[in-house]
Amino acid sequence: MSQHDTDTPDVVIEHLPVERLDELEPLWHAMLDHLVLKGNPVPIRPAAESWLLRRAVYEEILQRPEAFALVARRNGRPVGYAVVRIDDADPVWYTGDPQAELESLALLPDERGRGLGTRLMDVVEAELEKLGVSDLTIGVDLVNDGALRFYERRGYRGGFLLMYGRPGGGEWTALKRERERPYRSMWLPDGPPKE
Amino acid sequence: MHFSQTDAEPEGAPATDVAIEFIGVDDLALIEPLWADLVEHHRSFRGFPPLREPADSWPRMVALYRELLEEPDAFLMVARRGDDVVGYAAVRTQGPEQVWKTGERLAELETLSIAEGERGSGVGTLMMDEVERECARRGIDDLFIGVEIFNQGAFRFYERLGYHHCFTWLYGKPATMLKERDPEEKAGGR
């Protein structure tokens, strides 16, 4: 994939009011499709159901006045978007107060690799600077290696890893371990009866 | 975003002379020394953003734990060896997840701290057994765990318990990174 900053002169980036969030639904679907195609290790929700949950979160996020949604339009049609949430300072880390999180950044498939992500991120970062917010956190699915490299090239670094397990799916991992080596907890409040 | 703080060393069989006990918001003072141990351990990895001093973050964590324990099905447990508290775990619940097809409620291991001299002694395994049991009792199937990127001991520990890396959190200060930026780019993301 090659990239050229000059490939998107006919794209306009503007703020998206919360009433028009539904314009983003096809872009959200494209992002989910991308994760499915990449073989995401955690199963992905059906797109329409996922969008309803996602939109509700955006509505909540955008109630905070500094938070914002950006949409990139080519001939009026949304081809990319970004949503930034604003939170109070982190309890554990020396972040600024408030701090920002890139809640979403999604592009239509044929818009990827043409500099549009860069333009969106340039606007995100410029907006944050205007707001005086210095810290930005970005979450990336493990299978989305292109996105990870994109953000790393911009200077973002890990960070934190999120691990997932389904101990309750099928047989409980704890119970499997128990079979492998006898479980010897001294205290089992209201727990399942030991055999 | 707030990152969960978890810690444990690869270890074998669970500790046998350690008891697990659930605690409530009134018992938070019990675990303050273990919070300090966790922060000191994480500082040794030199990740970033930099960590607050334990004296600075502890009151913030107390507020977070108080808020968290109001969530349905959240819980906090300690491991005791005799009179000593040698570990604690905090689990929060949320859901439904918007992207991942998990159960309606899912759990996140907000904190797992093992006292410095107790790492690798089986306390972590014992606590994870209890965390999973408690989630099962509450009908929660899915558990997410945040691990500091340089904490290889903890990463291996959770992998051995059947957890897999699925997501990465990146962090930066865009205004100060701007000067060093490589103009090449490629897009994607969530």
Q: Tell me the number of structural domains of chain A.
A: 1
Largest interface: pair, residues per side = A-B, 95 and 86 residues
Number of helices of chain A: 5
Please tell me how large the radius of gyration of chain B is: 17 Å
Give a brief outline of the structure.
Chain A is an alpha+beta fold and 195 residues long. Chain A contains five helices and six strands, in the order βααβββαβαβα. Chain B is of the alpha/beta class and 190 residues long.
Tell me what the structure shows:
The complex is a heterodimer of chains A (195) and B (190). Chain A has 195 residues and is α+β, with helices and mostly antiparallel strands. Chain A has a single domain (5-165), classed as Aminopeptidase (3-Layer(aba) Sandwich). Chain A is 31% helix and 24% strand. Chain A has helices spanning 25-37, 47-61, 116-131, 145-153, 173-180, and strands at residues 11-15, 68-74, 77-87, 99-107, 136-141, 157-165. Chain A has a five-stranded mixed β-sheet with strand order 1-2-3-4-5, sandwiched between helices. In chain A, strand 2 and strand 3 form a beta hairpin. The N and C termini of chain A lie far apart (59 Å). Chain B has 190 residues and is of the alpha/beta class. Chain B has five helices and seven strands, in the order E-E-H-H-E-E-E-H-E-H-E-H. Chain B has helices at residues 32-43, 54-68, 123-137, 152-160, 174-177, and strands at 5-6, 19-23, 75-81, 84-94, 106-114, 143-148, 164-172. In chain B, a hairpin with a 2-residue loop joins strand 3 (75-81) and strand 4 (84-94). At the A-B interface, helix 1, helix 2, strand 4, helix 3 and strand 5 of A face strand 2, helix 2, helix 3, strand 6 and helix 4 of B.
Descriptive key words:
heterodimer, A: alpha+beta, five-stranded mixed sheet, 5 helices, 31% helix, disordered C terminus, B: 190 residues, six-stranded mixed sheet
